[in-house]
C-alpha cells in the first residue's frame, strides 16, 4: 500500500461527537423551514389526509390549533393551500375577497401576527377541471391565465399575504405578478417562484390533500419533463430576469442535482419543496417499522440543504423543528 494513504486519516476527525459537530458542514435550522397548511371551507374540520399521516385539512374556526402548534414548534413560516367551497371553470375563488385563502389570511394575520404567511398562487384547487389555469382548446391558455394570476396576487396581498409563490409554471408568470403587485402598492412583497417544477408522480398524495387532480389529461404541457436539466437552468434564468426574489426547485429528492446547479447559477436564495410523496414514503415505511422516521427525515432534509437549498418547504417542518431541539 502507498504509505501516504495512511498519513491522511479522515477518521481522525470522526472520533469524538464534539469534533464531529465542530467540522460539520451543513446544519438544519427551523428558521429555514416552511410548513404547508391546507385550509378547508366549512366548519369544525380537522381531516387527516389518509395518504399523509399527521397532515390535516383545517377549517378557519379550527385553524388556530394548527397555528399554535406550528409556532410552538419554532417554525415561523407557512405556505397556505385552499380548498374552496365552490370550484368553477377559471378558479374565481382565488381572487374573491371572501375566498378561502383570503379568509385564512385575515384570520391568521389578526390572531397570529408572528407567523409569516406565504400563499401558493395557482388555480388547480379552484377549478372544476383541476388544471392550473384557464382551459382553451383542451389545454391551459398561458396568457389568459396570466391576467387571472394578476387578480389573484392582488387579492392575496390585500388580504395580508407576506409573500407570493406562483406554482403554475406559466411562462411570464413572475413578471405578470411583479407588475400587478407593483401597480397596486405592493412593491415590497417578495415572489418565491416555483421556478423548476417537474411533472412529477411524487405529487400524488398532495392531490388528495388539495383535491386538485386534473380531471382530464395531465400537466405535461406546463410542468417540466423530469429528464431535463438545461431547461431548468433556462427557467431559472428567466424567472430571475422577470423579478423573482427566491427560486424554488420541486420536487427535492430526485432533483438534488438541480438544486445545486441553480444555486451555482444564481445569487438568489434557493428553496426546494420536499413534496407530499417524499413525505408519505418515509411515513409509510416508518409505520411498517421498516425505517427510522426521524433519522431518514433529517437525513433527507440535510441532503437538500447540502445540495444548496437555503429554504426547505416540508411537511416535516413542525416535527423536524421539535427533533432539532434534541440534537
Ligand atoms: C399546485 C401545487 C402542487 C403542489 C404544490 N402546488 C400540485 C401539482 O402541481 O399538481 C404539490 C405539492 C406536494 O406534492 O407536496 N398548486
Q: What is the overall number of helices?
A: 11
Please state the second-level CATH architecture: Alpha-Beta Barrel
The end-to-end distance, rounded to whole angstroms, is: 39 Å
Helix content: 25-40%
Shape: globular
What would the CATH topology be?
TIM Barrel
- Detail the poorly predicted runs: none
In the CATH hierarchy, what is the class?
Alpha Beta
Mean pLDDT reading = 97
Instruction: Please state roughly what percent of the residues sit in beta strands, choosing from under 5%, 5-15%, 15-25%, 25-35%, 35-45% or over 45%.
Output: 15-25%
In total, the number of domains comes to 1
Write the CATH homologous superfamily.
Aldolase class I
> What is the H/E order?
HEEEHEHEEEHEHEHHEHEHHEH
Derived from helix and strand composition plus strand pairing, the structural class reads: alpha/beta
The Cα radius of gyration reads 20 Å
By DSSP, the count of extended strands is 12
Describe this protein's structure:
By secondary structure, the protein is an alpha/beta fold. The chain has one domain (27-324): Alpha-Beta Barrel (TIM Barrel). Helices cover 38% and strands 17% of the residues. It contains 11 helices and 12 strands. The chain has helices at 17-22, 63-73, 100-111, 142-159, 173-183, 204-210, 230-242, 256-265, 276-287, 293-307, 317-325, and strands at residues 33-40, 46-48, 56-58, 77-83, 116-121, 134-136, 139-141, 163-166, 192-197, 246-250, 270-274, 311-314. Strands 1, 2, 3, 4, 5, 8, 9, 10, 11 and 12 form a 10-stranded mixed beta sheet that branches. Helix 8 links the parallel strand 10 and strand 11 (270-274). Helix 4 (142-159) packs across helix 5 (173-183). The longest helix is centred in the middle third of the chain and has 18 residues, at 142-159. The chain starts with 16 loop residues before the first helix and ends with a helix. The relative contact order is 0.13. The model has no long low-confidence stretch (mean pLDDT 97). The structure holds ligand PBG. Ligand PBG binds next to helix 6.
